[in-house]
Amino acid sequence: MVDVPLGPIGTAPSPATEDVELYHPHSWVTKYVFSQDAKIIAIQYSFVALTVGLIALVLSWLMRLQLGFPGVFTFIDANAYYQFITMHGMMMVVYVLTALFLGGFGNYLIPLMVGARDMVFPYLNMLSFWVYLLAVLILVASFFAPGGPTGAGWTLYPPQAIMSGTPGGQDWGIVLMLVSLMVFIIGFTMGGLNYVVTVLQARARGMTLMRMPLTVWGIFTASFMALLAFPALFVGAVMMLFDRALGTSFFMPAIVEMGQTLDRSGGSPLLFQHLFWFFGHPEVYIVALPAFGIVSDLISTHARRNIFGYRMMVWALLAIGALSFVVWAHHMYVSGMNPYFGFFFATTTLIIAIPTAIKVYNWILTLWRGDIHLNVPMLFALAFIVTFLNGGLTGLFLGNVVVDVPLSDTMFVVAHFHMVMGVAPILVIFGAIYHWYPKVTGRMLNDTLGKLHFWVTFLGAYAIFFPMHYLGLMGVPRRYHEIGEMAFVPPSAHTLNAFITIVALIVGAVQLVFVFNLFWSLRHGRPSGGNPWRATTLEWQTPETPPPHGNWGKELPVVYRWAYDYSVPGAAEDFLPQNQPNAQATAGLAHG
Amino acid sequence: MGSILIFLSVLLIIGVWWLSRQGLMAKPWLEQGIAADWPSTSSAAPAAAKAGLKVFLAVVGSLFALFISAYAIRMQLPDWRALPLPKVLWLNTGMLILSSLALHGAWNAARQGKDDELKIGLLAASVTTLAFLSGQLLAWRQLTTEGYVLSSNSANAFFYVLTGIHGLHLLGGLAVLGRTTARAWQGVGAERLRLSVDLCAMYWHFLLLVWLILLSILTGWAGNMIDICRQLLS
Predict the structure, then answer these.
(1) Does the beta-carbon distance from B34 to A211 stay under 8 Å?
(2) Which among A260, A428, A436, B89 is most buried, taking Cβ atoms within 10 Å?
């Protein structure tokens, strides 16, 4: 390694505490409930999101029970099935994944990783969580509303979403769903402003953009995308709410319902699809980019290797972020839009595969000849690479119009989508929780339970979704409450469905082991010390673990190097923290 | 979806320009130490607040660009019947321009530390903004009494939604402006109000720009522009 100092090497003065105005809690309530500390807010976000995740998991069990053993569970009628689908999808995509990656990890990691004391707008940050909680409560309330939650499918396509044939269409369900989404978006905007501006404005001395860990780059880019993409969902939700409640015809065409001509005319259901997917596709990457970033850091740390092609990784993140705004209509190949559109969107979709492939290659090259520690976070990170590659490859199939049209309404899409956006990001979330739990609590999660959790989840997810591709190729339709007897579906498909259901129950149950581990280790976990993984990034260098309010004690850290100085030749240890001024200084110290 | 893509292209250009100054070509693995010109306190509150507002304006811009995209798509459909705009909108536009000018005056006064001018400027901006908002309500009433109700045609619905969302944004800004004005009249000096006035002025100029664009679309002046946008995607 060549030293090219940008400035004088040595300990640089750091801005003292007096320069920074910090909010200080005065009571138990303002410290742990209405807290303005990003770390507490992160835990609140994560707790609520994981709880919603468990509800959505149970919903998926119920769906699988119906698909695996049709007719056995009589309380799951067609309406209930569609309600489960809708709530499972919307909860997982928006209220779990987005909230957990940005609200949870974003809040915890951004200030610590860039060397700030807190987010730049702590009050807004606190508000963001409470508004998110309100959105969750509104959504959950729809289970208890007359008519139950909406069963419009998680994409909420009009006109069916607001008509009487759909569960919740003319009851409370769809209204609560739309209001909840709008509230969520308002809350997210408050948080998103914090995540972006903290990265822009509150970085520690010496922390240039190109020294930031890729986790921060991923969350930063994703937050910016989310800020620009969520308004599309907001616009769609406002207009549909008007259609539903005030009798406008934004999306409602002239239509006959139950033999009666409705008082609507001329609206465009396709317009909603454009708006929805203008949000919906970036949303995939809003979830994926933080996952990419986190995985890069996990792999680098646990393979004791600097990340391969750091610059390329950053550029690829930015390129994916920009490109993801011009691919939305690949979700609409079968919507009846102009077929020439399809070619444009197929092209952009395939182009996105290039930066994504660069990232996958770089992860693999980081692992190449690394000192790989197969601990639980690393296992999850490796599983992510495989799963994401898998889901990404089927994505290339579906990105082509001619392949997509016959497969679009089959289980193949369900399998692809769950591999790439369901399983893959969840694996990263688990990996990240095992990785950062010691920093949050000061104790390690139990390793044996963690490995059990990993292997059942990873192999189980493959046992669930791999066969689903075959079902799709066979022509088994998605969205059907019951397949019934179709000439082209062989009896073996039913056996396979039963198998998938049983595995899904097992994988779901094993998540309880994880939840148990989270609570058990809080008391009984092995004390971790400040930097159990011997990692370079700033969050591991805090004077106390778990970091107290204000993170850094009296002096803010000063950053002298990038985030990936692992296995540096000549250094005393095999890693150099970002705030360590001089490699030789410590080496000398160790020898002296 | 042309207008949102144009809006995002503008943001992309700004983003690329900004990133190009952030040393994205640096080779961080070769560079250690700290650049000598690193600002001593990077998390200064005014800078953060201004950056925050700019990002927020990007979000608001995206929201309106999407509404305009939806408008452009919906207006092509055969049942669209444009509505005659109430004359009071012109008066309202004048009011909003005045309020933007008043805030610009206040911004200047805050810069030069002239407390009295600042008070007058802020008050004038608040009053003209209130006048704009009541004018908009008047326009709504006029339209409803003439029978252009929300549900009778999508052109009407869009008029109410666009003006409503714009009004709500202005109302939110007015809460901040009102507080700033009250503080100015309670004798808080220009020096301490400067940040608030800066932020209000930026927000007002932006919402004036949004209103002028909305007006040009509602009146149909922007018809050619919308046609061009539409052709981008068909």
Answers:
(1) no
(2) A428
